[in-house]
Amino acid sequence: MKKVLILLFFISGTIFAQETEFKITNEGYTRYVVEEIAEKKQNEIYDKVLDWALVTYKNPDRAITVKKENEYIRINSAYAGNTYIIEVAVKDEKYKFSLITFEGHSGSISVSLMDVRNMLNKEGKVKWIYGGHQNFIDYFNTLNKRLKDFILNNIEVSKQDW
Questions:
Q1: pTM, whole model, 2 decimals?
Q2: CA pair distance 48, 11, nearest whole angstrom
Q3: String of DSSP letters for the chain
Q4: pLDDT-based confidence at 158, cuts 50/70/90?
Q5: Cα gap 24→53, rounded to integer Å
Q6: Residues 75 and 67 sit within 8 Å (Cβ to Cβ)
Q7: Would you list the DSSP string of 69-90?
Protein backbone atom coordinates (compact mmCIF):
# COMPACT_ATOMS: atom_id res chain seq x y z
CA MET A 1 0.00 0.00 0.00
CA LYS A 2 2.83 2.37 0.89
CA LYS A 3 4.46 1.79 -2.52
CA VAL A 4 1.17 2.53 -4.30
CA LEU A 5 0.78 5.85 -2.45
CA ILE A 6 4.35 6.88 -3.26
CA LEU A 7 3.80 5.99 -6.93
CA LEU A 8 0.53 7.96 -7.07
CA PHE A 9 2.20 10.96 -5.45
CA PHE A 10 5.07 10.85 -7.98
CA ILE A 11 2.71 10.50 -10.96
CA SER A 12 0.43 13.33 -9.81
CA GLY A 13 3.45 15.58 -9.27
CA THR A 14 4.73 15.00 -12.79
CA ILE A 15 1.31 15.36 -14.40
CA PHE A 16 0.56 18.72 -12.76
CA ALA A 17 4.09 20.15 -12.85
CA GLN A 18 4.42 23.18 -15.07
CA GLU A 19 7.54 24.11 -16.98
CA THR A 20 9.53 27.09 -15.72
CA GLU A 21 12.04 27.08 -18.62
CA PHE A 22 11.75 26.62 -22.34
CA LYS A 23 13.41 23.39 -23.48
CA ILE A 24 13.99 21.37 -26.60
CA THR A 25 12.34 17.96 -26.61
CA ASN A 26 11.78 15.39 -29.32
CA GLU A 27 8.28 16.85 -29.66
CA GLY A 28 9.74 20.30 -30.38
CA TYR A 29 10.00 23.42 -28.24
CA THR A 30 8.28 23.86 -24.92
CA ARG A 31 5.18 25.89 -25.81
CA TYR A 32 4.88 27.87 -22.57
CA VAL A 33 6.24 28.40 -19.07
CA VAL A 34 4.39 29.48 -15.94
CA GLU A 35 6.00 31.77 -13.37
CA GLU A 36 4.79 32.28 -9.81
CA ILE A 37 4.64 35.90 -8.62
CA ALA A 38 3.76 35.86 -4.93
CA GLU A 39 1.49 38.52 -3.48
CA LYS A 40 0.74 40.29 -6.78
CA LYS A 41 -2.78 40.67 -8.11
CA GLN A 42 -3.70 40.01 -11.73
CA ASN A 43 -4.01 43.71 -12.58
CA GLU A 44 -0.63 44.52 -10.99
CA ILE A 45 1.11 41.80 -13.00
CA TYR A 46 -0.64 42.96 -16.19
CA ASP A 47 0.53 46.55 -15.64
CA LYS A 48 4.12 45.38 -15.08
CA VAL A 49 4.03 43.20 -18.22
CA LEU A 50 2.83 46.18 -20.23
CA ASP A 51 5.54 48.44 -18.71
CA TRP A 52 8.17 45.76 -19.48
CA ALA A 53 7.06 45.55 -23.12
CA LEU A 54 7.20 49.33 -23.43
CA VAL A 55 10.82 49.50 -22.26
CA THR A 56 12.01 46.23 -23.86
CA TYR A 57 10.92 46.69 -27.46
CA LYS A 58 12.32 49.39 -29.71
CA ASN A 59 8.91 50.15 -31.29
CA PRO A 60 6.42 48.96 -28.66
CA ASP A 61 3.42 50.37 -30.55
CA ARG A 62 4.23 48.02 -33.43
CA ALA A 63 5.44 45.10 -31.28
CA ILE A 64 2.38 44.95 -29.00
CA THR A 65 -0.28 43.59 -31.32
CA VAL A 66 -3.01 42.68 -28.82
CA LYS A 67 -3.84 43.98 -25.34
CA LYS A 68 -6.77 42.52 -23.44
CA GLU A 69 -6.69 44.49 -20.23
CA ASN A 70 -5.81 42.47 -17.13
CA GLU A 71 -5.81 39.23 -19.16
CA TYR A 72 -3.00 39.07 -21.71
CA ILE A 73 -0.63 40.90 -24.02
CA ARG A 74 0.60 39.59 -27.37
CA ILE A 75 3.92 40.73 -28.81
CA ASN A 76 5.19 40.27 -32.37
CA SER A 77 8.94 40.76 -32.82
CA ALA A 78 12.13 39.30 -34.30
CA TYR A 79 15.34 37.65 -33.15
CA ALA A 80 18.32 36.71 -35.33
CA GLY A 81 16.34 37.27 -38.53
CA ASN A 82 13.44 35.08 -37.34
CA THR A 83 10.02 36.35 -36.32
CA TYR A 84 8.07 35.31 -33.27
CA ILE A 85 4.86 35.97 -31.40
CA ILE A 86 4.74 35.62 -27.64
CA GLU A 87 1.77 35.99 -25.34
CA VAL A 88 1.87 36.79 -21.64
CA ALA A 89 -1.36 35.87 -19.86
CA VAL A 90 -1.85 36.90 -16.25
CA LYS A 91 -3.71 35.63 -13.19
CA ASP A 92 -3.39 36.39 -9.50
CA GLU A 93 0.13 35.47 -8.36
CA LYS A 94 1.32 34.07 -11.72
CA TYR A 95 1.75 34.58 -15.42
CA LYS A 96 2.02 32.29 -18.43
CA PHE A 97 4.67 33.15 -21.04
CA SER A 98 3.72 31.39 -24.29
CA LEU A 99 5.64 31.01 -27.52
CA ILE A 100 2.79 31.23 -30.06
CA THR A 101 4.78 31.18 -33.32
CA PHE A 102 8.45 31.16 -34.26
CA GLU A 103 9.38 31.28 -37.93
CA GLY A 104 12.70 31.13 -39.73
CA HIS A 105 13.13 33.05 -42.96
CA SER A 106 15.44 32.39 -45.88
CA GLY A 107 14.82 34.39 -49.01
CA SER A 108 11.14 34.10 -49.80
CA ILE A 109 10.69 30.89 -47.77
CA SER A 110 9.26 30.89 -44.24
CA VAL A 111 9.47 27.79 -42.09
CA SER A 112 7.79 27.22 -38.73
CA LEU A 113 10.54 26.40 -36.27
CA MET A 114 7.80 25.27 -33.89
CA ASP A 115 7.27 22.17 -36.05
CA VAL A 116 10.83 20.80 -35.84
CA ARG A 117 10.84 17.34 -34.20
CA ASN A 118 13.35 14.71 -33.07
CA MET A 119 16.08 17.20 -32.17
CA LEU A 120 17.58 15.03 -29.40
CA ASN A 121 20.08 12.19 -29.77
CA LYS A 122 19.95 8.89 -27.84
CA GLU A 123 21.65 10.52 -24.84
CA GLY A 124 18.95 13.22 -24.68
CA LYS A 125 21.23 16.01 -25.92
CA VAL A 126 20.45 18.34 -28.81
CA LYS A 127 21.80 16.89 -32.07
CA TRP A 128 24.64 18.97 -33.52
CA ILE A 129 22.61 19.84 -36.61
CA TYR A 130 20.07 21.61 -34.36
CA GLY A 131 22.70 23.42 -32.23
CA GLY A 132 21.45 26.84 -33.33
CA HIS A 133 18.03 26.07 -31.88
CA GLN A 134 19.53 26.09 -28.39
CA ASN A 135 20.37 29.78 -28.95
CA PHE A 136 16.68 30.44 -29.63
CA ILE A 137 15.65 28.61 -26.46
CA ASP A 138 18.26 30.56 -24.46
CA TYR A 139 16.89 33.81 -25.93
CA PHE A 140 13.31 33.06 -24.83
CA ASN A 141 14.47 31.92 -21.37
CA THR A 142 16.43 35.17 -20.98
CA LEU A 143 13.45 37.21 -22.17
CA ASN A 144 11.22 35.48 -19.64
CA LYS A 145 13.78 35.91 -16.84
CA ARG A 146 13.99 39.64 -17.58
CA LEU A 147 10.21 39.90 -17.45
CA LYS A 148 10.04 38.10 -14.11
CA ASP A 149 12.86 40.26 -12.68
CA PHE A 150 11.05 43.37 -13.91
CA ILE A 151 7.84 42.32 -12.16
CA LEU A 152 9.47 41.18 -8.90
CA ASN A 153 11.85 44.10 -8.48
CA ASN A 154 9.18 46.75 -9.02
CA ILE A 155 11.17 48.51 -11.70
CA GLU A 156 9.29 51.58 -12.77
CA VAL A 157 9.10 52.95 -16.26
CA SER A 158 11.26 56.07 -16.38
CA LYS A 159 9.25 59.13 -15.40
CA GLN A 160 11.52 62.09 -15.86
CA ASP A 161 10.50 65.49 -14.60
CA TRP A 162 10.58 68.17 -17.30
A1: 0.81
A2: 35
A3: -HHHHHHHHHHHHHHH---SS--EETTEE--EEEEE-TT--HHHHHHHHHHHHHHHSSSHHHHEEEEETTTEEEEEEEETTEEEEEEEEEETTEEEEEEEEEEEEETTEEEEGGG----B-TTSSBPGGGHHHHHHHHHHHHHHHHHHHHHHTTPPPP----
A4: low
A5: 25
A6: no
A7: TTTEEEEEEEETTEEEEEEEEE
pLDDT tens for each residue of 91-148: 999 999 999 999 988 777 788 888 888 888 898 888 888 888 889 999 999 999 999 9
Question: At 41, phi and psi to the nearest 5?
Answer: -80, 160
Task: Check pLDDT > 90 for residue 52.
Answer: yes
Instruction: Give the confidence band of 156 by pLDDT, cuts at 50, 70, 90.
Output: low
